[in-house]
Design brief:
With 412 residues, the protein is an alpha+beta fold. The chain contains five helices and 22 strands. It folds into four domains: 107 residues, conserved putative lor/sdh protein from methanococcus maripaludis s2 fold (Beta Barrel), CATH 2.40.420; 106 residues, Elongation Factor Tu (Ef-tu), domain 3 (Beta Barrel); 54 residues, RNA polymerase II/Efflux pump adaptor protein, barrel-sandwich hybrid domain (OB fold (Dihydrolipoamide Acetyltransferase, E2P)), CATH 2.40.50; 76 residues. A hairpin with a 2-residue loop joins β21 and β22. The protein starts with a helix and ends with a helix.
Length: 412
């Protein structure tokens, strides 16, 4: 009987002891410690801002054109008997140089005939005057005053008119003879040659096309924003042709082969109207002596050549100049504060070009600007900034509510 009870109670006791021991073990388990993930500061390149003066350079593209171009046309017909060696495409000439001659024989004969007519008319005039003097003397010997008809005044007037006509014909013959010599109206260059020796030309025939070489002009378009920083030599009605001021300097650049050459010039005038399609105002740059030999084998500035102009604009004083890559999306920049934490700030851009951005009072000298490409969503992230080559370590604390640095930062 006792053995049967033991057989029943022993398993029950073992189960009860196991329950007690298990409960004790469970109740004494250690509590897991809750910790935040470690903050890894971003490594960024940065620079300390300084104020400076900035020279605005306005860029524009244009094509070189001559200041004056002309078409040579003869005023008398004839055969070309002489051509200057410089009367070739690309040839240079000076003002007054003889470019070609037209056969003058017909005009020399016309001049001789006109001279003879003048002599004949002059003799007739002298004869009429002498006859009038004889008649006047006869009437005076009779004690009377000679009438106008008796003094041959109509005949004298007709003789005088004939003399004037002959003299006009003589002058016309002299001018026609002079016009057989074609002279250069200014110092220039041959653009297009259309006739040569032995060719017959008539009045109106195009002999050549020429252009002046003392200076060239380049027509440059400027936008409304660019005009804000360029002081144009404006003309006003009450000032006549006097400009309000001297135009700004301009540097002309042209690529020949693999080399870029430069010329110095100046803006001389602005056109009177704004282009209705592009909404741009065209200004004209002038470059003197474009065909003079330049330094280091610089080639001449040729007509029709495409060039880029860099106009010296206004001088902006006490501004902040930053790299263009530091300007983020939405016109904002990222600054590093005293706790080595990124802070974004909207800025106002005064001027920008391909590499730089000029800011006014949006930023202050001494502030630290982040240069490493990042999105503006990195605002609030702790960083380890290398400021102009010197590492500046921060406190490494992440502001409440900010995202971990590895999640917040992203490459642009």
């Amino acid at each position: 009987m006792i053995n049967s009870r033991l057989k029943f109670l022993l398993p029950v006791g073992v189960v009860l002891v196991a329950l007690v021991v298990g409960r004790a073990i469970i109740s004494s388990k250690p509590q897991a410690e809750r910790t935040a993930p470690p903050v890894v500061p971003l490594s960024v390149e940065a620079t300390r801002l300084v104020s400076t003066d900035y020279q605005v350079m306005v860029t524009a593209d244009g094509t070189v054109r001559p200041r004056t171009s002309s078409t040579l046309i003869p005023q008398v017909p004839g055969r070309v008997i002489e051509v200057s060696p410089s009367f070739r495409e690309g040839g240079f000439f000076e003002r007054g140089d003889v470019l070609l001659r037209i056969e003058p024989r017909d005009f020399e004969l016309a001049l001789s005939s006109a001279e003879a007519q003048v002599a004949q008319a002059s003799a007739a005039m002298e004869q009429e005057l002498a006859l009038a003097e004889v008649v006047k003397h006869d009437w005076e010997s009779l004690g009377k005053q000679a009438p106008d008809l008796g003094l041959r005044k109509p005949q004298i007037a007709a003789a005088r008119a004939a003399l004037q006509s002959a003299e006009a014909q003589l002058e016309r013959a002299q001018v026609d003879l002079q016009r057989t010599v074609i002279r250069a109206p200014y110092a220039g260059r041959i653009l297009e040659q259309n006739v040569d020796i032995g060719q017959f030309v008539s009045v109106g025939t195009t002999l050549a096309k020429i252009y002046a070489v003392d200076y060239v002009e380049i027509r440059l378009p400027l936008s409304n924003r660019q005009l804000e920083y360029v002081r144009l030599p404006e003309r006003f009605r009450n000032d006549g042709n006097v400009t309000s001021q001297e135009g700004p300097a301009v540097t002309i650049e042209a690529v020949v082969g693999r080399t870029t050459y430069t010329w110095e010039g100046r803006i001389v005038r602005a056109e009177g109207t704004i282009d209705t399609q592009s909404r741009q105002l065209y200004v004209v740059a002038q470059v003197d002596a474009p065909y003079a030999r330049g330094p280091e084998g610089r080639p001449p500035l040729r007509i029709g050549q495409f060039v880029q102009a860099r106009i010296h604009g206004a001088l902006l004083k006490n501004v902040i100049v930053i790299p263009r890559s530091a300007l983020r999306e939405g016109g904002e920049v990222l600054l590093v504060d005293e706790d080595s934490v990124l802070r974004r700030r909207a800025v106002s851009v005064l001027w920008s070009d391909e590499t730089q951005v000029v800011l006014g009072d949006s930023l202050a000298p001494g502030e630290i600007l982040a240069l490493t490409p990042m999105s503006v969503s990195a605002d609030g992230s702790p960083v380890t900034a290398t400021v102009d080559g010197v590492v500046m370590k921060g406190r490494g604390a992440r502001p409440p509510g900010s995202q971990p640095a590895r999640d917040a930062a992203s490459s642009e």
